Structures are given as structure tokens and as C-alpha cells.
Amino acid sequence: MRKATVTMKNHRIAQLVGAIVLAFSFVACARVPIGVVGRDNLALNKPAFSSSIENDEHTAAQANDGDPETCWRADDEPEDGPEWWQVDLEKPCDLAGCQIRWPYAGKRYRYKVEGSTDRQHWILLSDQTNTTATAPVHDLKFQQARQVRYVTITVTGFDEGCWASISEVKIFGREPATGELE
Ligand SMILES: [Ca+2]
């Protein structure tokens, strides 16, 4: 009889532990975003262009070479318009957002991000022309960025003491399909 009672207690304890494990599993799963933003950086080492470069040590390609220590830097010559940096993702992608790393912390960079399928018609992906952010890393979400192949970041203004320059741009797609870029 005593043995039967002990066995019953063990069974109830096992049930209780199982219920707790199951509850934690649900909580853990609920916190994991599923298939919304791809992890791959679609811009990494893709063809890059810019309105100008300061010198060969700061080319457009250095803003998407995966190295936060290298950067694209525009020249300081008067231009017809604002300086810009552009990447060709080499195929149309549905984009979720991007991350831009600016060279200097504590400085305001004002800019806009635009996307295009054909390099002719552009849509505004993110308007930061009035931003007051001074953090070096900006994470931006795109609402309607479908079939975008080209992404351009146009620098429209910056604080004194810095200039049009970007350390690194990462671009993220929607859905796990981002891994199909090979
Ligand atoms: Ca870089």
C-alpha cells in the first residue's frame, strides 16, 4: 500500500514537472519571431556606387564590406546635389529593413533611403531627413519595400565636424527566402 502511495506521488510530481516544462516551452516559442526578418545581410559585398569618393581608401564598396572599421567617404568638393551611396542587390528582393552604421557617435546625420527595381523609378523606404538621432547605428524598418533591387542612401545633412560617410550598411529581406541569394 505504501509503495503504491509513493508511486502515485512520483507520478503527480512527474505530471507537475511536465506541465511546467510545457508552459516554459510555450513562453519561449512566443518570444521567437517567425520568418519576418531574414538574418542574411543582402548588401554584403554587392556592387556599390556613390556620388563621389574622397580617395581610394574610402570607396563605395567599403560601406558594405562587412567591416565596421572601413567606410565610404564622399569628397568635400561642391556637388550638384547631396552625396549618395547606392548598392545593387543583384536581384529584386522584398525588404524588411536596414541597419546603417555612421562613423561618428554624437553627430546627427540626416538622410533618406530609397529603393528601386529598375534604377529609374524610386520609392521612399525611410525618411530620416529630420532625424535628431545621434547614435552611430540606426536600425530602420521598411513598410512597403517589394521587389527592390537597388537601394540608395542620400545624405541630406550632417552636423559640423563630420561629412557624408558611411561605415557599414546591412539590408535584410523578409521571410527566410533571403538565403536564396546564392
Ligand atoms: Ca565597412
Q: What would a concise description of this structure say?
A:
By secondary structure, the chain is α+β, with helices and mostly antiparallel strands.
Molecular structure report:
With 182 residues, the chain is of the alpha+beta class. It has 2 domains: 1-32; 48-181, Sandwich (Jelly Rolls). It is built from 1 helix and 10 strands. The strands form 3 sheets. It has a 5-stranded antiparallel beta sheet with strand order 1-3-8-5-6, with no helix packed on it. A hairpin with a 5-residue loop joins strand 5 and strand 6. The longest helix is centred in the N-terminal third of the chain and has 29 residues, at 2-30. The protein is globular, with a radius of gyration of 24 Å. It binds calcium ion (CA). Calcium ion (CA) is lined by residues 62-63, 65, 67-68, 70-71, 167-168.
**Mean pLDDT over the full residue set:** 83
Spatial extent as radius of gyration: 24 Å
Largest sheet: 5 strands, antiparallel
- What is the name of the CATH topology of the largest domain? Jelly Rolls
CATH architectural designation of the largest domain: Sandwich
Give a list of the ligands.
calcium ion
Uncertain stretches = 20-35, 177-182
- N→C terminal distance: 67 Å
Mass-distribution shape: globular
| Structure classification | alpha+beta
Order of helices and strands: HEEEEEEEEEE
Strand order, sheet with most strands: 1-3-8-5-6
The first-level CATH class name of the largest domain: Mainly Beta
The CATH fourth-level homologous superfamily of the largest domain: Galactose-binding domain-like
How many helices does DSSP assign? 1
Strand content: 25-35%
